[in-house]
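Q: I have 268 residues here and want to know how they pack in 3D. Can you give me a structure?
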Amino acid sequence: MQKSLFIPFVLLIGILSPSFRSDEPKVAEPSMSLRKLKNESFKRGELLKYRLHYGVIDAGVAEIEVANETKMLNDRPTLHIIGRGYSKGAFDFFFKVRDRYESFLDEDALAPVVFLRRVDEGGYKIKQDQVYDHEKQKVMSDGKMFDIPEYTQDMLSAFYYARTLDMSQAKAGDIFAVKSFIDNEIWELKIKFVGKETITTSLGKIKCLRFRPIVQKGRVFKKEEDLNVWISDDKNHIPVRAQADVLIGSVKMDLLSYSNLANPLAKE
């Protein structure tokens, strides 16, 4: 995976999959001194579905969901976020993708407690479990303990935390950054604000904020400008479109449907 890619582009590169029952996560000792952040951007029951294209090929389906449940971890309520999806059609025949990502996000602190990653892409498999202790600034990943900065996100929760950032006064060139723990390393995931655009989708015209994730050139992308994402210009900040020109073609992700948003979508 391209490590410096900003969520939600875990979706675009090939996450997500059929459901299965996860093992019960083991968590750290209870903590009552975590921050409390305001969240008006998403709520339980939200479901976003996307269609993924590789060139002219309809390559797959992806969805991200805030499960309609409350699980107590560390004696605190969490939001259970699930990303899943699969390849389809001709793409599924040549390169089968069956992935699933889960994050249990502390509801008040908007910081991950447990992160689960199950990747199966063309026979390449990853099973990864992470348990976060934000009071001690530690994370247990694959049986090893790592130091992390305060309130570091996992690769899925970073997207949801970023949605709560105030972008109402953003100017072209402004950069938003989120510290994340990816593949047992700390990465500062950054996106640059480009401007406001109204784009035409299968759901109608939607007012958007356009961003360019700041990526590593030469590995998957030819240059920084090859990756763009459009998020709704409202309090939801949901991804509406993502488009990337990569070294071996182009990849596109479009919002297919949505339900249970916390706020009205910015449709024109």
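Q: Anything worth noting?
A: The chain has one domain: 9-21+32-259. The mean pLDDT is 83.
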